[in-house]
Write a structure and sequence with these properties.
404 residues; mainly alpha; 14 helices
Length: 404
Amino acid sequence: MTTCEIGSPSGAENLEQRPWRMWSAAWVVTAVFVLSNSATPLYVYWQREIGFSSGTLTVIFAAYILGLLVTLSLAGQLSDRYGRKPVLLPGLAAAILACVLFATATTVAALLFARFLSGVAVGVVVSAGMASVVDFGGPNRRRLASLIASVAMVLGAGLGPLLAGSLAVHLSEPVVPIFAAELIVLACTGLLVLALPQKRFDRERNDGWHLRFPSVPRPNQRQIAVGVAVFGPGITATSFVLSLGPSLLSKLLHVTSPLVAGGTACAMFLTATGIQFAVRHLSIRRTLLIGAAATVMSMISIAVAVDASLAGFLILAALLAGAGQGLGQLGGLSLIGLHVPAHRRAEANAVMNVGGYIPAGLLPVLTGCLIDFTGLASGATIFAAALGLVATAGATFVQVRLRE
């Protein structure tokens, strides 16, 4: 199999002639994100079987964020330096090991490590995997490839909890079948990655390069900051729904079906998928502003849901949170695809996701601890108010810093 150099004219032409590679790279992203949220409908099950508090639950969820952030600090740079495939394959191996741990978990420690490895796998695909989609799209398909990469992420994130919730309803012991199925998907995805060509960039091999904290070229820092201003609050809202949504449904709103929890999470990410197609012809600025507004409305819906005990408003909050994340993600990825040089694209993806996932990890954990002291309704209301203010500030930043 020949090696094709991205950045050379023949390489760009070769990529454009084989669009199936773009779709194959997108499937890699989807497969790993199916794993990332498959555990969501099962947290109530594990809480019952193992026994842990809401605060511990958010720490388990945050272990995923920690693994993701650690990986983002390395994966983007390594991918831009040595190619996408050498980074994607170890990421898939981490995902496979996470499946095994989830399937056999009987302690909080096992769940923590499984979530950490899930974060490692996701950190690989949001940097190397999503950059690979744009690479294979070629120079004439950057907006389309950015859309496909973003949709691949949220589609996988939505399918995972739906499939897990569906099996959990019909099986008394659902954990092993759920993660065995995911294991088969990931193994097949590994074979697909092996079939993709290895890509390297034109650069000198002995130029004093070394690992460092991820960064982007100075001319592109404004674009990354604008993307994070909307993507960060949006993904924090979806993280709250994923980590504490099932507890809100079961303990506060008395909805205990795992299918409802999984279906809500799936609907959230399907909304994130559909909304991106709906706005694909809008300017990036308008896309980001609509995303920020959706996050603000999501927080208002959460406050209404917990204070009035209305399950319908929690579902509405989830849908709006999905829209906020999806539009923030699409806007940020579009800015990266259009403005960041190809040999820094995976690193730029890493920087944007670091900026989004730090609050997505910290705020739900703090909220979980707050809930343990003040109660579910009070903690969720305080979280909604705080994140609504942050999303409003993000919209103001976009208006000031990004022109049509």
